[in-house]
Amino acid sequence: MNAVTEAPFRQQSFQIPEKMKAWVLGDPDQLSFVEKPVPQPGAAEVLVRIDAIAVCATDLEIIHKGPPALIQGGLPFNKNFTPGHEYMGTIVKLGPGVDEYQVGDRVTVEVHAGCGRCERCREGMYTACLNYGKNYGEMNKGHRANGFTTDGGFAQYAINSINTLAHVPPDMSDEEATLIVTAGTAMYGLDVTAGLIAGQSVVVMGPGPIGLMGVAVAKALGASEVILTGTRDNRLEMGRKLGADYTVNVTKEDSVEAVRRYTNGGAHYVLECSGAPNAVNDAAKMLKRGGRICLAAFPSEPVPVDIANLVRNNIYLYGIRGEGRSATHRAAALMAQKRFDAKMIHTHTFPLEEVPTALRYARERIDDAIKVVVKMNHPQGC
Asked: Most buried residue, 6, 119, 150, 231, by CB count within 10 Å?
């Protein structure tokens, strides 16, 4: 029998500089464009050359007031911290013992690696790691959340645990790949709340990026009626293009009445992405008895909730943090299969040098910005 000899796999090689360009946070709302050393990957880590990063509302919150970032046990200001977390890129260096990925692989990243040792991490709930922020000095528990407790992606390179990576298909653009984490957050919310939703009704409250991806993911998973509620007609129209069967402008009609009409008495599930003060109470009234609510957003201040109504109607209430339980991988699979067009919510692109402008467009919704992406321009071979 003749042996078949295959040509050995040849990894790509990249010239990795000693220094990189990065934005660092000084005082609140003050970013500086500086040079920082390119970090080096350790065990179970890779060095990612960042090719594109999307701006998230949480980035704006961190840059403005600090939490939920926690750097060296405290606020992130004036600690040489680089924010940003919704990025994708190319693996350019492997840490010791890494064989799960190859140099040259295009990947998108989750935020949280988790410590891997606490009760929540062992259950797969690494976004709710009990050692969140304990990753410095003698108390280092191994937790990482890039852009939250460790350096993030408004830079040319970043270190990532192999547990945070998902492959990007060759025919997917860099810009679209930055949206996988947003879709993954919506997927996590539907996983936790509903599981299998084929043939059942889903209400998505709030047509922001996560809400719009919630519509797309719910429809891709076979939901019957998908209803999107919000205040802006242009965003609601975007939701229709992504699969919403009905849309409700809450400034023009009673959203509870409309949902109950469209679903013949009440929906099965609500994915709450608005953070509106009365969202939980409205969501509970939209549901059939025994329905479920997932909170993917939250009000900025404490709000009253009609607990008695939840109890009387056997309503289940869940909260999620980020994109847990490998939901990013499932969202990436749906996007690779072209089950929905996430590119629709990408509205603006800026270079790394113009991150402050990108943040301003996202914060002020200039030109109806939805997802603003920062795209890197790397020299050939770097």
From this structure: 150
